[in-house]
Structure formats: C-alpha cells, structure tokens
Design brief:
17% of the residues lie in helices and 52% in strands. It is of the alpha+beta class and 143 residues long.
Length: 143
Amino acid sequence: MKQSIRFIAIIGIVSLALIGCTDNSKDITKSITTPYDNIPIVVNTLNAYTFTLNANHFSIDRIDSLSFNTDSLVVTLTLANYGTGGGKLSIIGIDSTQIFTELLDKNKVVIQTNLIGTTPAAVSFKLSDFIGNISFVLSKQNP
C-alpha cells in the first residue's frame, strides 16, 4: 500500500512538472534559428580582422584599431540581402591615408588579393539606417 501511494505521488509530481513547463505562447526554436540583427561580430587579432553584421535599420560610426605588421594584405567584402540605407567601409593606413574604400550601397562581392603599400592602422564602418548582411575580412597575405 505504501509503495502504491509513493508511486502515485511520484507520477503526480512528474505530471505537474511536465504540465507546468508547457508554454505554447513562446516558440523557442525561433530564438535559436533566427539570426541576430544589429549586433556586429568582430574578431581583431594580429594580422587578421573580421566584421560580420546582419543589419536591420542599423546605424553606426565605428573605428577599430588594427594590429598588422605587414603591408601585404588580402581583402574580402560580401554584401548580401541589401535593402536600404547606405554606408562606407574604409581601411586607414599608419600614415593616415585611405588604403581601401568601398561604398556599401548594393549587393556585391569584392576581393583584392594584392593590396600592398601601407600597413593598416584602423578600419572604419559608417552605416546609416542600413539593411543587409555584411561580411568583411582583412588579413595578411600569405606568401
């Protein structure tokens, strides 16, 4: 008899826990599978820099200092799902010159494998009410 009561109590507690955890008003898969908007993801290490952004009406004026010890560079820029707004990407050299500049105003893929001359000191992103996906990589050119 004691075991029957204990068994029923355990089943009751487990049932209440399972019923109490049900919340159909929130779809947890949406938060897992939906990309995050308006959060720049930046990796900035010696001789490498990446910037990735899923922008949704996003504005920013950002300058990141770089740590490069070479002037032999590879640049890749992918702009996809462009919607509206505008922007500009610039790489600034240690002598304050603009090594590379690209307008962010339409879908595009830009690859430069022979950017040589000035060691980069900073990268600048200026976006105004921008909608689109940006992926930018600046790295040392391997011999």
